[in-house]
Amino acid sequence: MDQVPPSANGARRNEDIALDLLKFVAGSTGIVRGSAPSTGFAPPGASKPEDQVTQLLELYARCLRVVDGKPA
Asked: Per-residue pLDDT tens for 27-51?
């Protein structure tokens, strides 16, 4: 009997589930929302794009651990 890849039988990969969880958490909390000032100066306390990317990558890693059933 041939094995069917998970994506072909309707099961979702943990990476896809973690990505959906990341999108939900980021959207719900506003983790990456920010206003781009027209003057080119960031308001005090504003995150730099590099910091936002780092936050998103860390959040994705945490989401993947949760989906995999590992401790966060």
From this structure: 898 876 655 555 666 666 667 888 8
Q: What span, in angstroms and rounded, lies between the C-alpha atoms of 5 and 31?
A: 34
DSSP assignment string, 20-44: HHHHHHHHHHTTT-----TTS-PPT
19-45 burial string, b = 16+ CB within 10 Å, else e?
Answer: eebbeeebeeeeeeeeeeeeeeeeeee
So where are the chain's domains? Answer: 9-27+48-72
pTM of the model: 0.64
Q: In whole angstroms, what is the distance from residue 63 CA to residue 13 CA?
A: 13
